[in-house]
Design a protein that fits this description.
CATH superfamily of the largest domain: Histidine kinase-like ATPase, C-terminal domain
CATH architecture of the largest domain: 2-Layer Sandwich
Helix content: 40-55%
Strand content: 15-25%
Number of strands: 37
Structural class: alpha/beta
CATH topology of the largest domain: Heat Shock Protein 90
Number of helices: 29
Radius of gyration: 50 Å
Shape: elongated
Length: 1077
């Protein structure tokens, strides 16, 4: 794409910017029309890992800017430390206009100003987290030249830089980084894209109303900034065009309402959060319990989430009671606004990693272990009553010894914070404790509470005479006295559905008048027909509770009949019940209960009808009626009614016994609220914290990140140093064949000038060296852990090229497989080997000449003796022809022997080029011929056991040379160490180890060698002999001949053995060959 059509998105950040950049980059979409440039204030004193770390987190390649680099679309760049950046004529330039060493670098203002001039309306400037005001002047210039200015919202870790930009009045919109990134592509197509966020605050009241009607949670007193940010996130994720469209979605989609509620109520908690604070809390609770005169300890844990904090406090109290040998009844009211988390808390099972922060002694003492999880034991569980409660509108618990409300108040506005703290004051006993979160305080209410520990946020209630604003203790309007009356709130919208449900379920079975009842709260939801004879409305507050409206003589029977229908799930009718007051003719009523379909909230509902029956046959005139004289019929009726009454009582007793355990804690709550506040027992609802972490926790994360950066710096520098000092040219590829790292020298073999980072396969198209089947071998390495290498020649130098697979540390979502291609320059080694080999050859030739001199002495002595004899016989004229003939034959035989030794020496020094079938016995025999005289001269005895017909593929001359070096090494050791001529032996043996391998073993009796140096004796120039005796090359050459040339194995070790009934110790050289390989 042409540069003039490319948008440049400049991103300025400082302190806290790394986290913001992570969020931003996680949502961007790469596009040819957009180039991203990051200006993050960096430490100029050390190299940065910004690019590598952000690349790792984002999955994109983020490259450092180079001087005069051309700007391209579909790229992400970052400015290196200690550089100021400008853009000019489509290129990046480094620029330093000021000598102020304290000014931040790179300067965001300098870059943004140049960006505004260069790209005009195609410039986008974004200010993320940071301190100070760098970037504000640049933002003003961008907006002035037709560009777009954006900023991170007030949730930024450090809001100074974004706030300064926003205060300039030039910022189009302030949003979380991920929302800014998500909108960039849409923004370049439609500059009004972010308009959908502007109306959110004006629409909050409508959104709050929907949430309250559908979820019964009131968010109107939450801080607008917190709520707005979360609503913006849902608008983007729902892909709504704006807030008005999103409101329509909320009105028609109950699931989205639930998701928004969950977004605003993030459930976060842990055991013993802020351990130091709990240590101080235990100290204060111990003091409080010691002073208590009564046996009850009452604690309220608000916003308890899944219960970890309530359980933590219960464990502390249990420890205190045990340590001080006290017995108290402990009741911990753990409340939360969420039904889901409260239900989860009641029977919570914890995984092992969720018990982080709990000491092992507490785990052993207070938890029961199942297979892979833990559950609090009965002792701790019985202390806690979990209940749903809304701290904003529901009455509080009373006569409390402590309230824990941690990291909840920070999300309320100041007015609500003050009201909640006043309610806490009212709920606590004198000198009881208030436990808040790390970022929370009592504010201006110092007349209500005193500070015990400002660090741990523990406060104590002051005297009960303090003045409390009565308005702060009022609650929101209620529609009924009982929690389940909330269904009545939607009565107007649900009446049609209820009527349809009634007609559908029961119209074919009855047409009586009656009522629809909620099977949980027993509230009347719907009236059908005239039921006033059996229902009446008491004076006072309006109620829809059935058992307060039904006439007294039917109350027990109605309860029992509904209970029976709930148990059976089917239609139930009562026996005839005499209508009171008694009249003539006798009147009875039959109660019918029909189960209906569940309502929208998933609750059971029932239709209850009253069938009135008049018994005309039993009518008696008034003047004959004697109320004392009952006839048999009357008695039977009374007995039937008594029996019915007993049955209903029994049912009621069973029902009460079943629910007694749950009702016990609920009853206590109801009694306290009725006595003190004349309030209702509405189902409890509270809100929970949006975020767990506080400013200190965020700082801890930042510290960890800094530590990780230091470790990464060290590891990266160490890795680079290793690569630089390997003495090899290396390139490392990932599993997609992208280049991860390479050394400078690798450019001699591959053309990297194109800087193509898409794939190494593209680089190979411009390779400077031919490497057969390279891509195929690389893929083999990746897939099968295949490893290969071979010699190559390039520019008159010799290299060993290898391909090897390794594992690199990567993120969990990426493969850690990598490929290392390396070129090791062998040229110097090859030349050194040649020199060493030639030196060894000369040494061997010297040894051979020495051996030949010993061999020639005897035949020369014979020739000399025979010639002298012939001469004497000639002088004495006794020389006969037969004597001449015999003596000449002797001379000729000795001359042939001398000629043979010359041929052997010539063959030995001749360079062997061709391998062929080589007989081991011949190698040994010819070696003996060359060294036997020297051995005999040093009184060394050879003991030889050689098998016939053992053949290998090899060079006879090279193997003879290796054998001579090994035998000479033994000869020198025997000559130096062993004085007794009878103890000087060299044993040469062969043995077939398997059908495919043989062993040639040479052992001496020279006493062996020091174990500390035995592994070094095959090194070039290493010797234990005097310099006049050895060069240290013999065994080194033998090793090369056997292992490198003949692919055999050589093993040298000390050995002990018996020979001729005598114990010996010496050095053994074991040589193993493959047969005919």
């Amino acid at each position: 794409m042409n540069y003039k059509d490319v948008f440049i998105v400049g991103i300025g950040a400082s302190a806290g910017g790394f986290e913001a950049l992570q969020k931003f980059l996680s949502k961007i979409q790469m596009d040819d029309r957009i180039s991203y440039v990051i200006c993050q204030h960096l430490d100029a004193k050390k190299p940065t890992l910004l690019g590598e770390l952000l690349s790792k987190f984002s999955g994109f390649n983020i490259s450092a800017i180079s001087e005069k680099e051309e700007i391209k679309g579909n790229h992400i760049y970052y400015c290196p430390p200690d550089k100021n950046l400008i853009v000019q004529d489509g290129k990046f330039l480094f620029y330093e206009p000021t000598k102020n060493i304290h000014s931040p670098k790179p300067s965001i203002d300098i870059f943004f100003k140049s960006l505004a001039q260069e790209k005009k309306e195609k410039a986008i400037g974004i200010i993320l987290s940071g301190t100070g005001s760098d970037g504000t002047e640049g933002i003003i210039e961008i907006e002035k030249n037709g560009g777009i200015a954006l900023a991170e919202d007030e949730a930024a870790k450090y809001f100074s830089m974004p706030k300064s930009a926003i205060d300039s009045g030039k910022v189009l919109v302030a949003l979380p980084p991920e929302l800014l990134a998500d909108g960039i592509i849409n923004l370049i197509e439609d500059r009004k894209y972010f308009d959908k966020y502007f109306e959110i605050e004006d629409s909050l009241e409508k959104i709050f109303s929907i949430l309250k009607d559908e979820t019964f949670v009131d968010f109107s007193s939450y801080k607008n900034a917190t709520v707005t940010r979360r609503i913006k996130k849902r608008i983007v994720e729902k892909k709504a065009e704006g807030v008005n469209e999103y409101i329509k979605i909320l009105q028609s989609d109950a699931d989205e309402v639930t998701k928004l509620k969950d977004e605003l109520l993030i459930i976060v908690t842990s055991f013993f959060r802020d351990e130091d604070a709990f240590v101080e809390l235990k100290k204060q609770l111990t003091s409080l319990i010691e002073k208590k005169l009564d046996n009850n300890i009452r604690i309220w844990v608000t916003a308890c989430a899944t219960g970890e904090e309530a359980y933590s406090i219960a464990m502390i109290i249990s420890d205190i009671l045990e340590e001080h040998n006290k017995v108290k009844k402990v009741t911990i009211f753990a409340t939360d606004v969420s039904d889901k988390v409260i239900n989860e808390s009641r029977n919570r099972v914890f995984k092992a990693d969720e018990l982080h922060g709990v000491r092992k002694s507490h785990i052993d003492k207070y938890f029961e272990k199942t297979q892979k999880s833990y559950k609090v034991n009965k002792k701790i569980r019985d202390m806690i009553v979990f209940s749903k409660h809304d701290i904003i509108k529901d009455p509080p618990f009373l006569n409390l010894d402590m309230i824990s409300c941690r990291n909840l108040l920070i999300y309320f506005n100041n007015e609500l914070q003050k009201r909640i703290l006043s309610i806490f004051y009212y709920s606590l006993r004198y000198e009881s404790l208030l436990f808040l979160g790390k970022s929370e305080t009592i504010g201006t209410l110092t007349s209500l509470f005193s500070v015990i520990s400002n660090k741990s946020k523990i406060y104590k209630k002051l005297n009960d005479l303090a003045k409390v604003d009565l308005e702060t203790l009022t609650y929101g309007k209620r529609n009924s006295t009982f929690a389940k009356d909330r269904y009545i709130n939607n009565q107007a919208t649900n009446l049609i559905d209820i009527d349809i449900s009634i007609n559908k379920s029961i119209s074919n079975r009855f047409i009586q008048n009656g009522i629809v009842v909620d099977g949980t709260s027993y509230n009347i939801l719907f009236y059908k027909g005239d039921c006033k004879e059996f229902l009446h409305h008491p004076q006072g507050v309006h109620t829809n509770e059935l058992f307060r409206l039904v006439v007294d003589f039917l109350r027990l029977d109605v309860r029992a009949t509904i209970s029976e229908a709930k148990k059976t799930g089917s239609y139930v009718s009562s026996k005839k019940i005499r209508i009171l007051p008694i009249s003539e003719p006798k009147e009875y009523v039959i109660i019918n209960v029909y189960p209906l379909e569940k309502n929208k909230l998933g609750e059971d509902t029932y239709f209850v009808s009253f069938d009135k029956i008049t018994d005309t046959k039993s009518s008696v005139s008034e003047d004959k009626y004697d109320p004392i004289d009952f006839n048999d019929t009357d008695m039977n009726v009374l007995e039937d009614e008594l029996l019915t009454l007993k049955e209903r009582l029994q049912i009621t007793i069973e029902e009460l016994e079943t629910s007694n355990e749950e009702l016990q804690s609920t009853n206590e709550e109801l009694q306290s609220t009725n006595e003190e506040l004349q309030s209702t027992n509405e189902e409890l609802e509270t809100s929970n914290e949006e975020l767990q972490s506080t400013n200190e926790e965020l700082q801890a994360v930042n510290d960890e990140l800094n530590t990780s950066n230091i470790e990464l710096d060290f590891a990266n520098n160490a890795f680079n140093n290793v690569l630089a000092n390997l003495g090899a040219h290396v390139v490392i590829l990932d599993d997609k064949l992208n280049i991860v790292k390479y050394t400078a020298g690798i450019a001699d073999f591959f053309d990297l000038s194109t800087n193509d980072e898409e794939s190494f396969s593209n680089v190979l198209l411009n390779s400077n060296i031919e490497l057969p089947n390279l891509l195929e071998n690389i893929k083999k390495c990746l897939n099968y852990d295949f490893e290969t290498g071979y010699d190559v020649t390039y520019k008159k130098r010799n290299y060993y090229f290898s391909i090897k697979r390794i594992n690199l540390p990567m993120s969990e979502d990426k493969s850690n497989k990598a490929i290392v291609l390396s070129f090791v320059d062998k040229t110097e080694f090859i030349e050194q080997d040649k020199i060493i080999f030639q030196q060894a050859k000369l040494v061997s030739m010297g040894e051979m000449i020495g051996n030949i001199s010993h061999q020639w002495r005897q035949p020369l002595s014979v020739i000399t003796t025979v010639a002298s004899g012939i001469k004497l016989e000639a002088e004495y004229k006794t020389l006969a022809l037969t004597s001449i003939d015999e003596n000449m034959n002797v001379i000729l035989d000795q001359a042939k022997y001398l000629s043979k030794t010359i041929d052997n020496f010539r063959d030995f020094i001749k360079e062997s080029k061709d391998f062929g079938k080589t007989n081991i016995k011949r190698v040994v025999n010819e070696t003996i011929n060359l060294v036997e005289a020297s051995l005999r001269n040093n009184f060394i005895t050879l003991v030889i056991h050689i098998d016939d017909n053992l053949e290998i593929d090899g060079s006879t001359n090279e193997l003879i040379e290796a054998m001579i070096n090994i035998v000479n090494n033994s000869k020198d050791a025997l000559k130096e160490k062993i004085k007794n001529e009878d103890d000087k032996f060299i044993f040469i043996n062969t043995k077939k180890l398997s059908p495919n391998s043989i062993e040639l073993k040479i052992t001496d009796t020279a006493g062996g060698i020091d174990e500390k140096i035995i592994n070094r004796i095959q090194e070039p120039y290493f010797t234990t002999k005097h310099e006049s005796v050895g060069t240290g090359l013999g065994l080194s050459i033998a090793n090369k001949i056997i292992q490198e040339r003949h692919h055999g194995k050589i093993n040298i070790y000390n050995d002990e053995f018996e020979y001729n009934s005598k114990h010996y110790k010496g050095l053994t050289t074991s040589i193993t060959f493959e047969i005919n390989k």
